[in-house]
Amino acid sequence: MKRRLLSAAAGLALSASLASCAVTTVGGADTGMARTDGAAASQTGAGLAQPTTDSVEDAARTDQNTAQVLEGAMEPAVTGSAAPTPNALPSFPATTAGARAFVADAEQRLSRAGEFANRAAWVRANFITDDTQWLETKAGGEFNELASRLAKSAARYNRLAGLDPETTRKLQLLQRALVLPAPARPGAADQLAALGTKLDSTYSTGKFTYKGKTLTLNDAEDILASSRDPAELEAVYEGWRTISVPMKDDYAQLVTLANEGSRELGYSDTGALWRSWYDMEPQAFAAETDRLWNQVQPLYQNLHCYVRARLNAKYGDAVQPKTGPIRADLLGNMWAQQWGNIYDVVAPKTGAGLGYDVDKLLVAKKYTPEKMVRTGEAFYTSLGLDPLPETFWRRSLITRPRDREVVCHASAWNIDDAEDIRIKMCTKVNAEDFQTVHHELGHNYYQRAYKDQPYLYRGGANDGFHEAIGDFVSLSVVTPEYLKQIDLIEKAPGAQADIPFLLRQAMDGVAFLPFGLMVDRWRWDVFSGKTTPERYNQRWWELVRQYQGLTPPGERPANAFDPGAKYHVPGNTPYTRYFLARIYQYQFHRAACQQAGWTGPLHRCSIYGDKEVGRKFNAMLEMGQSRPSPEALAAFTGQRETDASAMTAYFAPLNTWLTQQNRGQNCGWS
């Protein structure tokens, strides 16, 4: 599928089925284990180049950095075809030949319009001004209008007998291609695009004042990650949420318009459209995510119980009670979606630690942002994949410029659906961004692998696949074995380091799971009308408590719009993809390690340098969206069903240890 976002800002792009993170943030990629939250999210293919971002951690610490742009790292030229002018679509007969001709024409139109919109989105993300926002809005509106018209035209062939499987699949992809479909009435597409751009830019330029200083998101995240003062944590946590208050009315208008467009496509609401992207009925997909959550929920609850006890021991009952939910601002992350920043608070009291600090090692080895990206490239080439094109190095944004506002969420882009692949990332030299780099390059390698597919197949098998590629690689990247292979450490620690290692991994990977579910659970209720604007914030916190077992540090104001403080809501990036990616990454990892003949613990396996695994892996990537996702999954793993047992197997030693630590505790929070 191509990414489902037209543009990070417009939030209107083709769906994972048609248009191709993102983040993002959990990551700069909501990423394997990286702690960032990305912005646009997931695959970029032919539709608007929505940055594939965040791996699930993508956004976390990527916004508002202060580094300079590497010389020559970016080339924001907007050359190429002129902006497409909307015109009437040609009429094709309601015959099998007519359907094939319609699809061929649609692919050509979307390819031309998509590249122009991609370039407009790239320029706006790298130069946030009134003019670039206008340009992206115009390009996004025109693209969304075209895609909406094509989706509605495709429906006329639904009952046509005798269609070949390829044409049938492409017609289906066209009909479920948009994230936010525009209504057909004049002006609606432009209005929807303008709202999307405004919401995205409001978030990306958000700042607040604390102790007389103006703080960006990056500043605030640094405080949440390092401070252990509950009063300061509460002030900064709540301060960032003031930036989203003005978004609420615009967001409600956007929901109304998108629902109108979705109903014109035959869906009950936009949430039902989003759930239709996974090669099953919308209701079946909701049940599927419930099944997967039930597989991993006991592991999360065990981790929650342990972390709560350690926070209680540090802060006392007045700050963090021994029972009930955890205070969200104490967990080291702006959205409490990953908890790794407070590892020092929860580290095992006895036994050896990891014995190394990747942050310090990267600095000591004189890594630069560019060297981190080249190291990431070397991982993929060690698997037998081709090096990145020379244009990647000239056109990517690798560090934050000092002279302008940019969207800093880590993201991966495919501008032309061919070789013009790029990343946009305000990279810092630390372990988190080291992982995020590998994650974002996973998007780029996926994009290039399927570039020879027909336009409508240039995307991930589903949007969760696109996020999982880099997340899967991250599981090798974090191992001591890999760090030794690239000479960051001299010797891998023994088995005594396994629990500290797995606990650190779980603080990001396992802690993220319920957040990965609840963001879209909230949006599904909003789109369906079950949650009305006056209950936006109340319902958000009900779901946070239900899934994550968390509570805000204090009573939230009546005008709060806390969902808007998470990029993916104003950026209109579907989020369930990140939950699925967490599951897929371990399923891919287990299959790859089995193929490599690995017989040790799953968490110690690195596939670096295994070209046979790389060959099989790339064969799956080359399929793109040409086949339903169960077939793509089976091509690499041998399993058609998504299965979280690989994740629970990976963390099994930790889960046993957590159970021992939690004896006598009243676990749970209801």
Q: Indicate the structural class.
A: mainly alpha
Basic shape? globular
Helix content: 40-55%
- Strand content bin: under 5%
Give me the side-by-side strand order of the main sheet.
Answer: 1-5-6
The largest sheet is: 3 strands, antiparallel
Give the number of helices: 23
Mean pLDDT, to the nearest integer, reads 86
Total E-strand runs: 7
- SSE pattern: EHHHHEEHHHHHEHHHHEEHHHHHEHHHHH
Distance between the termini: 39 Å
pLDDT < 50 stretches:
1-29, 31-86
- Our Rg estimate from Cα atoms comes to 23 Å
Can you walk me through this structure?
The protein is globular. The strands form three sheets. A three-stranded antiparallel β-sheet has the order 1-5-6, with helices on both faces. A two-stranded antiparallel ribbon has the order 2-3. Strands 4-7 form a two-stranded parallel ribbon. It has 670 residues and is an all-alpha fold. A hairpin with a 6-residue loop joins β5 and β6. Helix content is 50%, strand content 3%.
Index terms:
single chain; 670 residues; mainly alpha; three-stranded antiparallel beta sheet; two-stranded antiparallel sheet
List the helices and strands and how they pair.
Elements: E1 52-53, H1 96-126, H2 130-154, H3 165-175, H4 188-204, E2 208-210, E3 213-215, H5 217-226, H6 230-240, H7 248-264, H8 270-275, H9 282-315, E4 326-327, H10 343-346, H11 358-364, H12 369-382, H13 390-395, E5 411-414, E6 421-424, H14 431-449, H15 463-477, H16 480-485, H17 498-528, H18 536-548, E7 550-551, H19 576-595, H20 611-623, H21 629-637, H22 645-650, H23 652-661
Helix pairs in contact: 1-2, 2-3, 2-4, 4-7, 5-6, 9-17, 9-23, 12-14, 14-15, 14-20, 15-19, 17-18, 17-19, 20-21
